[in-house]
Design brief:
Structural class: alpha/beta
Number of domains: 2
Number of strands: 11
Shape: elongated
Largest sheet: 7 strands, mixed
Strand content: 5-15%
Radius of gyration: 27 Å
Length: about 500
């Protein structure tokens, strides 16, 4: 095959980058998508490639032939394929990580280092195969690495813009493995040895069969859907409410919590206690007319809102359009003239917003492993304040610990809101231990003429006085800003 070495260099370069992007989706449910996780993933990939480059050059100097190249590519194909099986082992190994950095490095080494090491071997090995004279060695090596890098660029765009959204993370693993088996078949076929020619046929068969392997199931029981979007990997699963035994449907993107849910026997009834507390805004501001929600998930609260407040409107900002589609298909969301949906980042919406609201519901913090820092800062909170009417209120659902070192995020966010709003309350939604990460409702009022939050919570929501934590938050916490918001540090503390 003409230009076989260039084709292999280009494709293997593309596979590396697609594997890295897909890897971020595979480990996100266990470790999140923070800077720490991306740093660990990129570092492990680069380290494994470097070792592969070194080893590939070393073995190529001893004996370079297409038969051995075929074996290298076939091994890489098998190791890429193994990711779909090892990811479930990772669930058990990292179910309760104690150190995010250590867990990230261990997890990414287990899943991606072996395959990336063998992919790193390919380009220096190809360079030795293609090299004819010492005089042109520099040109040969440079050209192949340029082609491999071009493949990485194409793989980056193809993986990020197309594959993840249309095929899903596990299916992509199958596609990459099949591509490498086909490259191995081409390499074996180029070998003069008859035995290698027979292996070429085997590689073709494996490349075909691997596309029909049933993906290994995820950790969720009664899985309804396992899908990738432009922004996350999500599961929809059917379960039972532990307190009532009623059937439920849940949306989640992490093993550490559930993003949204509903009762299957009453889809408009709120399943989670913290979402019921959003109705507090109407008790604080009885003339509630215009509202904004940042982060909708499966749209459980918007469905409840339009039914409960027939004279009010709700603007919903949900960054992920696919979640809206899934909510319509699986969670009973229907179009409503009083609900306007905007598919964009919540901070971008706030930066450009000219409208004013009576209440803002912020439910974009999905778990302590998925905190969008751009919505935690003083600048973002001032944008929320600017988007409120004079008697407006912001209600933010936080995932945080109440006491101990892991309460640092709650303390910092409370101190940051206090920089902007005259009245800020921290409400513990349930009676879980203070040291455990849980739903905390932060209520910030633009007016100092506040009603009695305590009496409202007791009478309407059954929340006792001891669950109002504002006086217990210790002063002196750092103020979060666009320039410095160490969310990853707080996440690491919460893991402890």
């Amino acid at each position: 095959m003409k230009h076989l070495t260039e084709i292999i260099a280009f494709t293997s370069g593309a596979v590396v980058m697609i594997l890295e992007l897909d890897g971020s989706r595979i480990i996100a449910p266990y470790l999140g998508t923070s800077t720490i996780v991306w740093t660990g993933l990129i570092g492990v990939i680069l380290g494994s490639l470097s070792l592969g480059y070194w080893w590939g050059g070393k073995i190529a100097d001893k004996s370079a032939n297409f038969g051995t190249l075929g074996k290298i590519l076939a091994t890489a194909a098998l190791l890429v394929l193994s990711v779909s099986f090892l990811k479930n082992i990772l669930t058990l190994a990292l179910l309760t990580p104690r150190n995010l950095i250590t867990s990230t490095i261990i997890g990414t080494i287990i899943l991606f280092a072996p395959a990336t090491f063998f992919l790193g071997i390919v380009t220096p090995y190809l360079a030795r195969l293609k090299m004819k004279t010492v005089e042109t060695s520099g040109e040969t090596v440079g050209s192949l690495y340029a082609i491999s890098t071009l493949g990485s660029i194409v793989g980056t765009f193809l993986g990020g813009f197309v594959l993840i959204s249309y095929f899903g993370s596990t299916k992509i693993i199958m596609i990459l493995s099949a591509a490498l088996f086909l490259l191995a078949a081409a390499a074996f076929n180029h070998s003069p040895k008859p035995k290698d020619r027979k292996l070429a046929l085997l590689m073709l068969i494996l490349g075909f069969l691997v596309m029909f392997i049933k993906p290994v199931g995820s950790f969720a029981e009664k899985i309804v859907l396992d899908a990738d979007t432009h922004y996350s990997r999500v599961w929809i699963k059917d379960s039972e409410d532990p307190s009532t035994g009623r059937p439920t449907r849940l949306l989640t993107n992490s093993i550490y919590g559930t993003q949204s849910g509903m009762f299957l026997d009453n889809p408009d009834e709120l399943l989670f206690q913290y979402t019921k507390l959003f109705d507090l805004a109407a008790k604080i501001n009885p003339n509630l007319k215009t509202t904004l929600m940042i982060g909708a998930g499966a749209y459980s609260y918007p469905k409840h809102f339009v039914k409960t407040f027939p004279d009010a409107t709700l603007d919903v900002v949900e960054i992920d359009p696919k979640l809206t589609d899934l909510a319509k298909k699986y969670f009973g969301l229907k179009d409503n003239p009083r609900v306007a949906i905007f598919h964009e980042d919540g901070r971008i919406f706030l930066n450009q917003n000219k409208k004013t609201y009576d209440a803002i519901f912020n439910d974009a913090f999905l778990s302590y492993l998925n905190i969008p820092f751009q919505l935690t800062t003083e600048e973002a909170i001032r944008k929320m304040s600017d988007s409120l009417n004079n008697n407006g209120v912001v209600m933010t659902n936080l995932i945080a610990s109440v006491s101990g070192p892991s309460a640092a995020f709650l303390e910092a966010e409370y101190a940051t809101y206090k920089q902007v709003f005259p009245t800020v309350h921290i409400i513990k939604v349930t009676d879980r231990p203070d040291t455990v990460s849980q739903n905390i409702m932060l209520v910030a009022m633009k007016s100092v003429d506040k009603p009695s939050i305590l009496s409202i919570l007791k009478t309407n929501f059954g929340i006792p006085e001891k669950n109002i934590l504002s006086p217990k938050i210790k002063p002196g916490a750092e103020i979060l800003a666009d320039d410095f918001a160490p969310i990853e540090k707080y996440m690491a503390l919460m893991l402890l």
